Amino acid sequence: MKRDEATVSYTMSRIRGKDTSIEVKLRKALYEKGCRYRCNSKYIFGHPDISFKGVKVVVFCDSEFWHGKDFEENEKKILSNREYWIPKIKRNIERDNEVNEKLTKEGYLIFRFWGGEIEKNLDKCVTKILEGLSSRGYKFAK
User: Fold this and answer.
1) Rounded to two decimals, what is the model's pTM?
2) For residue 113, how far is the Cα from the chain centroid?
3) Is the Cβ–Cβ distance between 45 and 58 less than 8 Å?
4) What is the DSSP letter of 2?
5) Within a domain: residue 44?
6) Fewest CB within a 10 Å sphere: which of 39, 65, 74, 84?
7) Which residues does residue 112 pair with via DSSP β-bridges, in sequence order?
């Protein structure tokens, strides 16, 4: 199945790294629960999507494609520009592991959610974060 290069290029150019739909959905749900957070903090290694620096809790909202969910199985589904995308996604997986390792050493509690998890089980994701925040003594706004 050959894909039109212009269509693929346009589609990829529309994908954003910040304020994605899954991030916004999770942030709104957390805000409604009284959470006040920072977005994409440049002061925390890995620039987490959502951070609670005072209690050392960070949240990453990872899309399945960019962060390589089930990559061994899905690698063969990449049909165009394989010599670019496969190393790029493999490096993203490595980088996520490096970020997790460094933040864990610094005492952070890390939550990583796949986009599908946020879409299908938003309440469950929010509950996990709230429990983590409570365990760290976070003071909720409401």
Assistant:
1) 0.83
2) 6
3) no
4) -
5) yes
6) 84
7) 60
Can you give the CATH number for the domain in which 19 is found?
3.40.960.10
Q: For residues 116 and 62, what is the distance between their CA atoms, to the nearest angstrom?
A: 9
**Count of domains in the chain?**
1
pLDDT digits (tens, 9 = 90+) for 31-75: 999 999 999 999 999 999 999 999 999 999 988 767 777 677 767
Between the two ends of the chain, the Cα-to-Cα distance in Å is 53
How far is Cα 65 from Cα 88, in angstroms, rounded to an integer? 11
Q: Which tokens in the block code for residue 23?
A: 């991030």
Burial of 5 (0-12, 13-18, 19+ CB in 10 A): exposed
Amino acid at residue number 65: F
On whether residue 142 sits in a domain, the answer given is no
Q: Which amino acid is at 30?
A: L
- Cβ atoms of 60 and 112 within 8 Å: the answer is yes
Number of H helices and number of E strands within the chain?
A: 6, 4
pLDDT band at residue 85 under the 50/70/90 scheme: confident
Q: Which residue has the tokens 């997986």?
A: 93
Angle CA 117–118–121, to nearest 5: 70
